[in-house]
Amino acid sequence: xxxxxxxxxxxxxxxxxxxxxxxxxxxxxxxxxxxxxxxxxxxxxxxxxxxxxxxxxxxxxxxxxxxxxxxxxxxxxxxxxxxxxxxxxxxxxxxxxxxxxxxxxxxxxxxxxxxxxxxxxxxxxxxxxxxxxxxxxxxxxxxxxxxxxxxxxxxxxxxxxxxxxxxxxxxxxxxxxxxxxxxxxxxxxxxxxxxxxxxxxxxxxxxxxxxxxxxxxxxxxxxxxxxxxxxxxxxxxxxxxxxxxxxxxxxxxxxxxxxxxxxxxxxxxxxxxxxxxxxxxxxxxxxxxxxxxxxxxxxxxxxxxxxxxxxxxxxxxxxxxxxxxxxxxxxxxxxxxxxxxxxxxxxxxxxxxxxxxxxxxxxxxxxxxxxxxxxxxxxxxxxxxxxxxxxxxxxxxxxxxxxxxxxxxxxxxxxxxxxxxxxxxxxxxxxxxxxxxxxxxxxxxxxxxxxxxxxxxxxxxxxxxxxxxxxxxxxxxxxxxxxxxxxxxxxxxxxxxxxxxxxxxxxxxxxxxxxxxxxxxxxxxxxxxxxxxxxxxxxxxxxxxxxxxxxxxxxxxxxxxxxxxxxxxxxxxxxxxxxxxxxxxxxxxxxxxxxxxxxxxxxxxxxxxxxxxxxxxxxxxxxxxxxxxxxxxxxxxxxxxxxxxxxxxxxxxxxxxxxxxxxxxxxxxxxxxxxxxxxxxxxxxxxxxxxxxxxxxxxxxxxxxxxxxxxxxxxxxxxxxxxxxxxxx
Length: 729
Ligand code: IFM
Description:
The protein is of the alpha+beta class. It has 20 helices and 27 strands. The strands form 7 sheets. The chain has a 9-stranded antiparallel beta sheet with strand order 1-8-9-10-11-18-15-14-13, covered by helices on one side. Strands 7-6-12-17-16 form a 5-stranded antiparallel beta sheet, with no helix packed on it. It has a 4-stranded antiparallel beta sheet with strand order 2-3-4-5, with no helix packed on it. The structure holds 5-hydroxymethyl-3,4-dihydroxypiperidine.
């Protein structure tokens, strides 16, 4: 891979005050699990976490389930001549430092090979100096395999090294304890732990094997199983040891412990290198499909590779019963729950570059139609209404209240009840997948049922009032305005969704009449229901100001207090925190792209060029970007409108959300939607990728200093490569 620098994220020196930030950035994963970049030796304030897709649990006393932090497989303690290696070691300058001295440290995440490396130069109390190099990866070739290699080099002296590699069963999610029936045991050179989630009953098992230059001894204590070994280094010499860990759960097979022990038990001394090679080969192949190469902007280049990397390590390749949470698998934020972020922000990258992953993610929704039907029924409607926050069960898992603040005050969360546009967001993703892949089998067997049953819900939910159809009590993408009437985003998308549903029925009748018949009976797609849909499409109320030629975000929006967001600059957090919940509800401050989001999704179908420009100019100055979902979408739409400066400013802002933590919460996990949005801003926004008469085509509006953007997409099974060149540079 050319120019390594554009494939690497680094930290140097050690920054103990930003532990959790870097843990998120340096997460490794393989679509089965991710492990945060915590260190092998523990530090105060850290949040080590390994999150496995699909393992949710509701802890005692907690309102909703969350993704479970499984037993920690990272721990490796190293002592040099009896001095424990620690980066908290002080007294750098002393020649006989008490507790040792850290002389230097650097970490690098190599995005190309999905490998985390660390080097530390350390002086023991004895005066011996060693260079310790740690490497780790979560194998993409074998997703149950986690590998660590440590190489210790005697830079000065001939130190005695002792090591202890452990598995810790007592992992927690902040204040919640999910794991019960914990067991830890070690025998020979293999250690193992098992645990079972307290409410959902998933069994998890990990087994580690230590490959050391000398004899390995087993030790058990409480909830930890450890393997230790000792060896002597010659002056100038070096030695490596490997820890291989296998992980399985009862989601994978009936006896996860046996499987984990079998995998490490069967490994040979050269296994690390063989696994590394297979892992690197898989990543090379993956990047050949997904990379976006940008010439003329190194920061943008690194940012897009970082974003793609983080989506790829969370992307389930072999499992169609899980989906990607709003924080990927890289942190505990949003409890691992799945939002619309997946379908509208993350999925397009998968649909266009790795359609089999997109199909898995959409199948996750199809498998949860019964939960969506239950939710619709609970609200008194037929059809399906997907949960705003989803986990393994498919039931609504949005908490009803925020956690209490310092004064014990809580705020009601309405999104689980009234942010219903999720239905059309999912339908949009299904249709986009179908359009790009031509996967008729998926549409026939799964996609159609999603699109149609969510349409059934809307057909009943739309209310006939004042000679038109309205949808009351909604939350649009702009969550600063709750339970409003006639969100233009929602109403317009519902109108679009219903017309797509009618066209889809036509297609089914022609291409798969048996399926058309089955769905017609099962979902009650009677002639009167379809006539009602047509009526709704014709008469849906789309709030619009004829005089100003703009869409109105919702009825009454412009009667609220006008607060230009630019008034509060410079500021670090969102305006919500600054002005408070009550005032924001009564103002025109918008949390995130809403009308602008509609324009991104529907393109020219959203309105004339004049209306689009008017919309953007109106809503941009009112938008706080209090959500990380906002800047990338603004970059995309501004690029299409030819607003080059705003487009680039918004792109840079989106690019910095994780890398520079410009929203201050990266410790909780990567912002999946922003990562996916960044890809869309480049591909759909700056490059103008669309399906033209003859297939995929571009219509570039590159930032002025970008020389070239190269990327590939798959359209109907065929790869298309684009080299978008900026003639002006
Ligand atoms: O889904 C988003 C929502 O649009 C804004 N708040 C955060 C959620 C999860 O990212």
